[in-house]
Amino acid sequence: MEQTKTLRRLKKYLQPGLFTGKIVLIMGVIFLIAYILTLNGMRILPDTEGYDTIVIFIFFIALIVSVPGLIQILRFRKQLRELDQRGELSQVLSDFASAESMYNGKVMMGNSYAFGKGCSAVIRYEEVERVYLYEHYTNSIKDERMLKVKMKNGKTFGLCRLKVYLKREEDETEVMETVLSHNPDAQIGVN
User: Where are the beta strands (DSSP E) in 88-140?
Assistant: First the structure.
């Protein structure tokens, strides 16, 4: 019972949010209902000409916005199934339950695994090749900072998003040092 509760907490913590896709989908449903009611005699929309195209367009946008998050969720669930088949899931869950929260709850650091909020992957320290601070610039203006993890199999995961204009970097270095303490072969650095 406790294990299923921890599994639900782990899924909720690691799965990416589909907030934008949900909002667009809700708008599409509202337009669809208003369009159907107007076609059936209730005058909700003043002129229904062209609304069918708008409804289809809104659902298409919702699908496009949600696809990356859905792909991440499917990959995460696949990883959980693989962990369960190898018999490691109970170890992952106990590690998550006793993990130390860092960077205002955006990262949980356990004894064998790291868990990034919304990163959609359980990261084993042994498999980490490199942990680095990623900064993205648009027109010479910094607009994104995050801690990224490159695994030995070549996959890269965004461990957590960081504040863009934070001058103090103790929290980021603390996370990097925690990974380094569990895996001395891992490299740490910037970009």
Answer: 100-102, 107-109, 113-116, 122-124, 128-138
